[in-house]
Write a structure and sequence with these properties.
Blueprint lengths: L8 H17 L6 H11 L5 H10 L7 H56 L23
């Protein structure tokens, strides 16, 4: 039996526990060490980092199923929180981008409106350009 990608540790452990209970009902003696080993080799790849850590730092022969499942569930919750945070950050980034794009559109609109206003101005009597008023003319008072 292998864990499916869509299953949580709790769901998978429930299946394993039911199977162990059935085997015990038929008279099989299954040591806790064997259940621990089965869980460690049958979880999905996403648990590889925690499985490696457990195998390297703990004595598998004395590790209880409860301790193992607790460690795997803690890892699962940590991964879940990280995914939620990264999803929230992605949404926030998207909102920020939309806001920036909206501001750019508004600025572009304002600048084109400003250009149209300048085009509607009468030509300056001093230099004959339409981009400023006579009182603001650079050439005013110059020979």
């Amino acid at each position: 039996m292998k864990m499916k990608d869509s299953e949580t540790i709790d769901e998978y452990y429930t299946k394993v526990r039911e199977l162990v209970n059935q085997l015990k009902a038929y008279g099989e003696d299954i040591p806790e060490k064997r259940v621990v080993e089965k869980l460690l080799i049958s979880v999905t790849e996403k648990y590889d980092p925690i499985v490696t850590n457990i195998e390297e730092t703990k004595d598998i022969s004395t590790l209880t199923v409860t301790e193992l499942v607790g460690s795997l569930e803690a890892y699962e919750k940590r991964r879940s929180r990280r995914k939620e945070n990264s999803l929230e950050n992605a949404f926030q980034s998207k909102l920020n981008m939309r806001s920036q794009n909206s501001n750019r559109k508004e600025e572009n609109f304002k600048s084109t409106m400003g250009d149209k206003k300048k085009q509607n101005m009468r030509p300056c009597r001093i230099c004959k350009r339409t981009n400023h008023l006579e009182k603001d003319c650079y050439f005013r008072g110059k020979p």
